[in-house]
């Protein structure tokens, strides 16, 4: 530890000549291997070279494991007369994983005159990231989010200010944003820090940040000057925090007779992978300044082989820009892509200094998986299954993207013909239950369907990333297919009612009703299964009818049409203490059991008295849906409804 302190002392001593020039910056990392990382330090320094010492060509990066390396400059440019952008890079391999490493860069010093901290000119400039190292074989590789919009921006007194850091995670992880106090060292905040709206505070001075998008709104600045804020970006995968990035940014508030440009409203959108997104944006300056529109965001920052978006704009008033993106199946992801459009005017203050004002519009673009097409459900009379098929090939299958994981099959009893909404993937809340997981083919046979129900099926496709061990992360569902509905062939009787007619421990009474099979070649082939025919009504105790099973009645007929007895009243039962379940067995010539109906139980009520109330529960096992219940209470010998 003493060695590390001495190294830092000499580094700071040797770099002291570059003091008092930092405006903003951030540190990001890129994973090169399991334990190897590349760090990029991006700093924004004053551009007034004649007033400040020049920037250093190297910066110290503390890797959080006792190692400090010097990051060398790889780029520098001057966007305007206020600041210079400097980019430094270095690499390091850790000896092993720890719960986390704190990577940091500290260098003297900030510029003077920052309004919302004390003695900024004597305050160290410090930025850091939290790095959690996980074995990529189990959780996948991870690089930090990158922040694409410049962290130097301009506001005007009494005009609403907007800014968005333009965060993009190259791994598709989820991001959250939080305002924190800028630092001058590890766990050491700058002195006497205040949020910008606490300088000349008031009801019309509010500084806020959207935790989901990172967009900042300051309505409205009340004092001209220079302000610094810090934005902490957290990165999550499957609910696990992977790391953080800290951006230290600067807002320069001026007091000129100028207004920022204004965007025409831009709306969020969702599109199906494989379609092209093409739209125009425009911005107008109320002071007849010339406006330039730029765009930042993940779609524009994709690898050239991965169909990045393109944005072309003109300079004018109004200014126009055209955003065009040919989406592909690889673009499908759970979280929307964010694009930040930034309109900048060309105002020049008296004295010739460029003082641009900006407007920002943040747009969310979600790329969703296409719905599987041409779903068909057909009952299979040979095995009492329902066979489901869908279109082969699928538009975003393995032939288009290795992120395709397979299909799931979903079923519900009864139809739900909801319209497909391009922004709503999956089937949550629609009443469907998953019955098959990750099918790679284009068919599935449902062997759990029962006679008498109408079953409706939908198919989902799934996408995500896989580790080298095959572990899936960042999974997302496609849009649902249209539904296909059918019934099994009705070659067996179907119980439709099991009701308690009277409740008593010895003389209770149950009523049972069933319906005949349909005698048609598609359902019951009476030539293949000739008479005489017989129904046997079987009763069992318990909700599943498994205990003390007995035959309570049978009905026979030489012809199928003569078998018309379909109700029975069962007497002398303990209906107050025991639930009963029934099934109807169906026999053909020679006493051959063709099959039986699904078992169906009565509703069994339990009551527990407590302080001035009665708690009621009721249980049942039936092959249909009990959609509505009516509870009656007996007062003075008469039952009256309580709940319907």
Quick rundown:
This protein has 644 residues and is mainly beta. The protein contains two helices and 46 strands. The strands form twelve sheets. Strands 1, 2, 3, 4, 5, 6, 7, 9, 12, 17 and 18 form an eleven-stranded mixed beta sheet that branches.
Tertiary shape: elongated
Q: How is the main sheet built?
A: 11 strands, mixed
Average of the residue pLDDT scores? 91
Poorly predicted regions? 1-19
Total domain modules = 4
Content-based structural category: mainly beta
Percent of sequence in beta strands:
over 45%
Walkthrough of the structure:
With 644 residues, this protein is mostly beta strands. The chain folds into 4 domains: 1-152 and 164-200 and 221-247, no CATH class; 256-368, Immunoglobulin-like, CATH 2.60.40.10; 376-487, Immunoglobulin-like (Sandwich), CATH 2.60.40; 494-643, Immunoglobulins (Immunoglobulin-like). 3% of the residues lie in helices and 49% in strands. It is built from 2 helices and 46 strands. Strands 1, 2, 3, 4, 5, 6, 7, 9, 12, 17 and 18 form an 11-stranded mixed beta sheet that branches. Strands 29, 30, 32, 33 and 34 form a 5-stranded antiparallel beta sheet that branches. Strands 37, 38, 40, 41 and 42 form a 5-stranded antiparallel beta sheet that branches. A hairpin with a 5-residue loop joins strand 23 and strand 24 (319-326). The radius of gyration is 36 Å and the shape is elongated. The relative contact order is 0.08. Residues 1-19 have low confidence and may be disordered.
